[in-house]
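Hello forum,

I keep getting stuck at the same step: I have a sequence, I want structure tokens, and every attempt I make locally crashes halfway through. Rather than fight my setup again tonight, could one of you with a working pipeline run this one for me? It's a single chain of 189 residues.
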Amino acid sequence: MEIQVRNATAADIPSAARTLAAAFHDYPWTRWSVPAADYAERLEELQGLYLHHALGCGLVLVDDKQRGVAALLPPDAPEPGALAQERIAELLGDRLHALLATELPEHPAGSWDLATIGVDPDSQGKGVASAILAEALRRLDSYRAATALETSAARNVALYSRHGFTVTATTEIPHGPVVHSMLRCAADI
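Reply #2:
Ran it on my machine without issues. Output:
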């Protein structure tokens, strides 16, 4: 089964946000960082805000059946606008201070950020994430750009490793998840 990957449009964002919210429902980082009250609704709205931001300044990819989505930000990406930041702070509520106090290693200069990639739970294990990730990396290789990411799910390390990423740091968040920082250098083309 060939999986077609394309650029997302603004019309794709609501569906893509739902996909990411379903994919990250039990993810250690989001369970730790998003308040439990109205968790699913908060998570979906946060994903939508982040995707709109990435669509405006980076790269958002979806598969042809919208089972998966990835968002990547260039090294010079600005912060989300003031209104989006205000809403993000409201959605994060009492978890905002913990997030702001969390220190993760900085991405290497000039590297793109694989901010998120997720697949609807019913489609996981069918090659959707690999297809989207391979297309994203193919595009970044044309820029000769390295790609950095963080994951708090140990099982994701194997997926990313298959695509050329290596673990550069492991951070244990006090009272929170373990976060693996990973990097993939640009492929020679």
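Helices lie at 13-23, 28-33, 39-57, 82-92, 96-101, 128-142, 154-162. If your local run keeps crashing, start a new thread with the error log.
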